[in-house]
Amino acid sequence: MPSVYFQTFGCQMNAADSDAVRDLLFRRGFTLGATHDESDLIVVNTCSVREAAERRAKSRIAEFARGKKRRRGQRLWVIGCMAQRLGDALAAEIPGVDLVVGAGQIGRMDEVIDAQFPARPADGGDRPPSEIFSKTAASDFVPIMRGCDNFCAYCVVPYVRGREQSMPYDDIEAAVKKKVDAGIKEVTFLGQNVNSYSHNGIDFPELLRGMARIGGLERIRFTTSHPKDCTERLIDVMASSRKFASHIHLPAQAGSDRVLGLMNRGYTSSSYVGLLDMIRKHIPYADITSDLLVGFPTESGAEFRETLELAREARFTAAFMFAYSPREGTAAAAMPETIDRTEKMARLSELIDLQTGITREIYDSAVGTELEVLITERQRKRDRAWMGQDAGCKRVLINCDGLESGMIIKARAVGSSGMTLLAEKKQCFMSTFKTL
Ligand code: SAH
Ligand code: SF4
Ligand code: F3S
After folding, report:
1. Ligand 2 centroid vs 64 CA: distance in angstroms?
2. 288 and 232 in a common domain
3. Domain edge (last residue) among 340, 365, 390
4. From the CB of 393, is ligand 3 less than 6 Å away?
5. 159 in a structural domain
């Protein structure tokens, strides 16, 4: 049987897309190859969000392309956001790339694969779930919308992913039920801006309400929420059922109103802080996480300190922090780059130091509390150490026999490393949450 090897860069949407392409190939008899050398097909799913992401993907693709000569007949496909941005120029730049399929064409991948492997028709059936989900039996992603209409000035995503498109409610429900039947306990709904989900009059809070009724689905997460579209109705729904994780990822990007305006984010620092207060009023223990971007064109030192101030006030459980990288074709790429790389990196490391300290304080203060942990994976082969996640977004390590991924257990946090909680099992239960 032919085998395929995946290398996926970028966000969770890319991970979900790779899984979808993998399933299409499985239906044509492919198996997963253990290494790229041994595989008949290599698929690289790429990201364009920062220049470094493209550089990394390109060097990996070039490496695969060079290695190809060693095995006759091996094919190399490049898909995803960079494939969309550069198109066939990518194949011209890196000889050895056989096929380039942009993120916008992922929905047509079935036809593309048929054209590439005419002798391998899909059998129409699915492989046994145990085979597909053997790596993480606990949690999986479900895209509910694609694309983005927000055009934040720095961001390439609307260009490579196109306009917002929400999926029909029934299709989402069917996808979730299929995963639950296969043993998945937790789903994460994905979109560049899930709050703007809208299909046939159903909006995001209503979609969530419906999904919480699905029996056997124990935990629901979603990402990413845009602050300008995060309503009290949404937070109300989150607070209405224990099935919803008490976690929201709400990228703030910056603390200065002038910079937020230039970024085209549609909120101010104080309206953002007001949003956090509203969320914490409904869900006092909510883990709130963020993305923060430093070194946006013309950001002054004082404006950067407003980002530090915001992070101090917001007390994010964790944040992804980035140095601005100009992306061709975006509005910000036309602005003067006023901050050199050294200064950008200095700002980034100051921010990271601050946030790392806040994350540590939040983890440390959870010691002694009771947690509900979804066990997701064994830390090392045959070890008794298991990784999981609490009802918010905290990583939890439990040393215990008799656990399995997919279990939800009650545990007590007994220690903290500053970015992981160490916990002891109290009792194991398969939850019987009341539906809405
Ligand atoms: N849709 C999501 C984010 C997608 S990109 C949202 O709106 O939150 C993930 C993060 O990458 C962004 O939140 C931003 O912080 C960062 N990012 C996007 N473009 C960037 C750029 N040009 N340079 C550096 N970081 C960038
Ligand atoms: Fe990019 Fe902004 Fe859209 Fe997020 S909301 S994907 S940051 S344009
Ligand atoms: Fe990257 Fe595309 Fe995601 S640009 S962040 S992989 S949507």
Report:
1. 31
2. yes
3. 365
4. no
5. yes
Confidence of residue 134 (pLDDT cuts 50, 70, 90): very low
Q: What is the pLDDT of residue 71?
A: 64
Using most ligand atoms within 8 A of CB, pick from 152, 195, 228, 296 the residue to mutate for ligand 2. 152
Residue minimizing CA distance to atom 2 of ligand 2: 152
CA 117 to CA 73: how far, in whole Å? 13
CA of 204 to the centre of ligand 1 (A): 22
**From the CB of 156, is ligand 2 less than 6 Å away?**
no
Indicate the residue type of 234: L
Indicate if 348 and 279 belong to the same structural domain: yes
Nearest ligand, CA of residue 51? 1
Please report which ligand is nearest the Cα atom of 102.
3
% of the chain exceeding 70 in pLDDT:
94
The whole-model pTM stands at: 0.93
pLDDT of amino acid 428: 52
- Domain limit, last residue, from 83, 116, 149: 116
Distance CA(141)–CA(160), nearest Å, equals 21
Say if residue 419 is in the same domain as residue 348: no
When pLDDT is averaged across residues 80-101 and rounded to a whole number, the result is: 96
Cis omega (within 30 of 0) for bond into 224: yes
Of ligand 3's atoms, which has the minimum distance to the CA of residue 49? 4
Are residues 301 and 329 both part of a single domain? yes
In a shared domain, residues 188 and 103: no
Ligand 2: residue whose CA is nearest its atom 4: 192
Q: Per-residue DSSP letters for 106-122?
A: GGGHHHHHHHH-TTS--
Closest CA to 192 of 16, 395, 7, 8: 16
What distance in Å separates the CA atoms of residue 386 and residue 405, rounded to the nearest whole number? Answer: 8
Does 123 reside within a domain?
no
Range of the domain at 50: 3-116
